[in-house]
Amino acid sequence: xxxxxxxxxxxxxxxxxxxxxxxxxxxxxxxxxxxxxxxxxxxxxxxxxxxxxxxxxxxxxxxxxxxxxxxxxxxxxxxxxxxxxxxxxxxxxxxxxxxxxxxxxxxxxxxxxxxxxxxxxxxxxxxxxxxxxxxxxxxxxxxxxxxxxxxxxxxxxxxxxxxxxxxxxxxxxxxxxxxxxxxxxxxxxxxx
Length: 192
What we know:
Elements lengths: L2 H33 L4 H27 L5 H16 L2 H61 L9 E2 L7 E2 L9 H12 L1
Antiparallel strand pairs: 1-2
């Protein structure tokens, strides 16, 4: 075989593999869309990025494999690769991958739930002990605070409102006892 035919054969196989890779990448994108729901804007942006990546890949293949010349063999090879993938692996890949991922995540969620329940059961006595200790510390703290506030010294003071005639009323409303006699006696002693 001549070197040109071998080169064309390699180029054609590379275009078929490129078609398979592009279709597989789009199936991965479809798989992600089924697992994580997207709104229309993000779906459009993903498609735009996907087709930009496909264009870049095709352009690179044509540039290095065929000096940038678009040939029917390259387009046909990519189409054959896409069709071959779609009819074989592609028919089952997304459907069963979603099924397996949902089952695995279900098992993981179930396992995590069981581990949480076991840890809850294991640490419930510790939690109750900590709660009892915390309540005991709060009671002790309140008792100490109560004792400290009860030991304060309270002074009872009567405030007197002075009036014109010397008789006053204590601030709580009772009348003040008059102490005129000692004052009068002092006055008599000074006169004599």
